[in-house]
Amino acid sequence: xxxxxxxxxxxxxxxxxxxxxxxxxxxxxxxxxxxxxxxxxxxxxxxxxxxxxxxxxxxxxxxxxxxxxxxxxxxxxxxxxxxxxxxxxxxxxxxxxxxxxxxxxxxxxxxxxxxxxxxxxxxxxxxxxxxxxxxxxxxxxxxxxxxxxxxxxxxxxxxxxxxxxxxxxxxxxxxxxxxxxxxxxxxxxxxxxxxxxxxxxxxxxxxxxxxxxxxxxxxxxxxxxxxxxxxxxxxxxxxxxxxxxxxxxxxxxxxxxxxxxxxxxxxxxxxxxxxxxxxxxxxxxxxxxxxxxxxxxxxxxxxxxxxxxxxxxxxxxxxxxxxxxxxxxxxxxxxxxxxxxxxxxxxxxxxxxxxxxxxxxxxxxxxxxxxxxxxxxxxxxxxxxxxxxxxxxxxxxxxxxxxxxxxxxxxxxxxxxxxxxxxxxxxxxxxxxxxxxxxxxxxxxxxxxxxxxxxxxxxxxxxxxxxxxxxxxxxxxxxxxxxxxxxxxxxxxxxxxxxxxxxxxxxxxx
Length: 510
Prior knowledge:
By secondary structure, the chain is mostly helical. The protein is built from 21 helices and 2 strands. The protein has helices spanning 6-14, 16-34, 36-47, 51-54, 56-71, 79-99, 106-135, 139-161, 183-189, 196-203, 217-228, 230-241, 255-266, 298-331, 339-342, 344-363, 369-389, 394-408, 411-422, 428-455, 459-486, and strands at residues 171-172, 212-213.
């Protein structure tokens, strides 16, 4: 079994600069994903706000991340617009990191996190969309690598922040009531969007809001700002190389057109299939109304989008909910794990996601997206069922957390590649799917938090089983929808030769 497919490697070499640029942009995205949880208590001290007030900063970030994902498609009308947006967004992330230490009011901090969330959402949509446009049927490999860098950034960010976190309450009041407060425990408990569970957890800690502020967390944010600064520079270098800066941009063909030609020239079917005209400009949520070759089957076209979006709604929602509440679940009865031991669970989960995406890069050479999706969906639901059955086992919780991260890591990139494959790489599906994933991450955290508050910690795994089952049902419904509509005549488009495991829509004759 070859580790690297020569044809895939040749595609990468012909498009290496912009591919590496998009990967680095997603590393910037990953830095923003995980830094807020560990630093939230120090930011509370900096803004001299209550714990209840500071937890709503999470909601500000997630809400605008969803909005950014929704509008990201509007910024991808041309390659110049896409790269310009990426340059602005990655630079905005560095500026936000640098400005956070200057936010001494919780409202100012919420605004800064809203800007960061908006930039993250736009980055999420555009980077995924551009890689799908460039590599099309081979995009699974490169999307797996793209999402690997999210996990890498999410692992690096807490490591940078850790040396600068306060070990004791960082607002020194007149009393010493809080000197023995378990700071690590509170940080882990604040790892999700604010909900009833969050407010119940933090309300028992009456931290001071007035007094001398003692925290060094500013250095962590300045270091992350410097680490992220090469990313917008890399985007600008790519724009300069492609003559997309200033008036010279109109004198050269777009990079995407050239990349498509280069890709097809190296494909096995390039000699018989002419490169189509570029129809991917200007894709947004509004462009989903144009059915294209599904003009006689609008319900099939809409169904594929909706069902694909539901798969990512549940999978990304599971990631957000598990990351946010696994610590609370582990420290509650019947597990009652020590705070320091339970604190490793989130890191193990992200390590599983990162390792899973890294391992999926070579596996994508040999397994098509539909087969990978089947394995990952079944793996996720089986892991949750076992976690529910062995709910009192500490050892199995650690093993199950790692396994869950490994399985669920491949759903996002495979679903993007597979859905675009079904729809002939129109680009519209990526915008819709990324938006659905952001919505799921925001809403399912609230649902899980509310369920744990009202029904107890046991409902955490019950919710996981339900969400994973609904995700699997959505995927099976997607396969059924495609089977039904691909078997029906659609004018001059022949789909009867396509199979569920490999849908070669690049062979469509217009």
